[in-house]
Design goal:
Elements lengths: L4 H10 L11 H13 L1
């Protein structure tokens, strides 16, 4: 986490980070990720 947090912060600051809630059912998480990638 210590190594990835600065990377996540960088992309968040650039406005290109999309966060997807991974707590849903796997098919729903996949659909959300696919929607983001295809946008």
């Amino acid at each position: 986490y210590d190594n990835t947090e600065p990377v996540v912060d960088h992309f968040r600051d650039e406005g290109v980070l999309v966060e997807v809630d991974g707590e849903a059912a796997p098919d729903e998480v996949f659909d959300r990720i696919r929607d983001v990638v295809e946008a």
